[in-house]
Design goal:
The structure is a homodimer of 200-residue chains. With 200 residues, chain A is mainly alpha-helical. Chain A has ten helices and no strands. Chains A and B meet through helix 1, helix 7, helix 9 and helix 10 of A and helix 1, helix 7, helix 9 and helix 10 of B. Chain A binds a DNA duplex (18 and 18 nucleotides) through helix 3.
Chain lengths: 200, 200
Amino acid sequence: MARTVDPVKHAASRRHIMDSAAVLFAEHGLERTTTAMICEAAGMSPGRLYHYFTGKKSLFIAVLTADRRETGQVLEELRRTEPPLEALLAFVEHLAAPAVAHPLVSQLVLEAMMQAQRDEEVRAILEEVDAEERAGLEELLTRAAEAGEVDAEVEARDGAAWLATLVGAAYLGGLDGGDPSARLAQLRRTVRGYLLLPRV
Amino acid sequence: MARTVDPVKHAASRRHIMDSAAVLFAEHGLERTTTAMICEAAGMSPGRLYHYFTGKKSLFIAVLTADRRETGQVLEELRRTEPPLEALLAFVEHLAAPAVAHPLVSQLVLEAMMQAQRDEEVRAILEEVDAEERAGLEELLTRAAEAGEVDAEVEARDGAAWLATLVGAAYLGGLDGGDPSARLAQLRRTVRGYLLLPRV
DNA sequence: GTCTATACGGAGATAGAC
DNA sequence: GTCTATCTCCGTATAGAC
């Protein structure tokens, strides 16, 4: 029984569409990106696009889940990294890394966050990713705190949530352009300052 | 020559529409808020709405400019506040205050930022406000630095821009709900930590 | 699998009576 | 000034030939 579809080609076609769409979603947002624009960017007809995706929203979600980062592996390694505070900082930088990679990535992530406010399906996906990230932050934060490398005033759960928010700030900063590596340095300094009580 | 329109009533009508629309823009975003939704929320017909605004976008911009904060007055006062570092922190909190006031305010501000990425007119408005805020931050930051209350490593211009980004983080944090006043405390701690070099 | 052509619905905006 | 009714366009998605 010969397969009628080549799964490799099929995946490649999907990927090509997703890559084209991702740029447009980042630049113009979900609603202002028309399927016609996507078709033109991908160099294909609507019929073809809808052969690979059931609709614009499913394409958007496919884009989001494709770029989903695997934090598990990184986390596994950082659990053994010494000192614990450095491991935590490294994790924060890992999470913020996409923001400095390219302005469009920042825009896409922020667009996703906004959509999550308004769409249950998108919200569910991002929630999952966020929970994973926060759990990692909390774990590393707790470890650093136990090692006495973090000020006692910083509570694990709230602190982790706030760190996630600060990572978000790096994405916000990505909108204005400017030097990406400088932004990463600012973030690093900020997180250190937050975790270690500054002398007053 | 009697005026045919009562300017007070006219302004009140505009205001009523803007108030109704602001909530919807915050909740659903610009594109997903239909004029029909606005009409229903405001309890009026499309004809009436278009009597007061030339279009949905002009209404959106009216909402943004109406909620525009007057930083000048606050800044004037903070210039004389001692110590300088406290003045700077107070200014940061002033800028972040709307974010803790109500979740919808956070959403509206973020929506505006996203629209600014895609619309020249919106961008121009926000740019103006942002520039004003950054100028204020830079001024107070410089003053605090000259008083030796801020670590020398923090450069005035970049530092001010980064502080503005951190204020943005407070708005981002507003999306997730949680205790608003706690978020303000986190921000305060973060900014202090950033400005004062923590002992390593 | 891919195209062209088009159906369908909805949203912004207007017309014109009152 | 305000309403009802409606126009027009455009965007999503589909139909059906190749």
